Amino acid sequence: DPKMLATDVPFLYTGREHAWKVMDGPIGKEMMNRFEPLGAKPFCYGGGWGFRGVLSNKRAIASPDDLKGQTIRVPPIPTLVEVFKAFGANPVPMIWGEVYLAVKQGTVDGLELPVTTAVSDKFHEITKYYSRTLHSYPAAVWVMAKPKYDALPADLKKVVDDTMTAACAQHRQDEVRAEADGLVQMKAKGMQVNEVKDLRPFQERAQPVWKFIETKVGKELFDRVVAEAKAAAK
Question: Given 71, 161, 202, 211, which residue has the most CB atoms within 10 angstroms?
Answer without folding.
Answer: 202
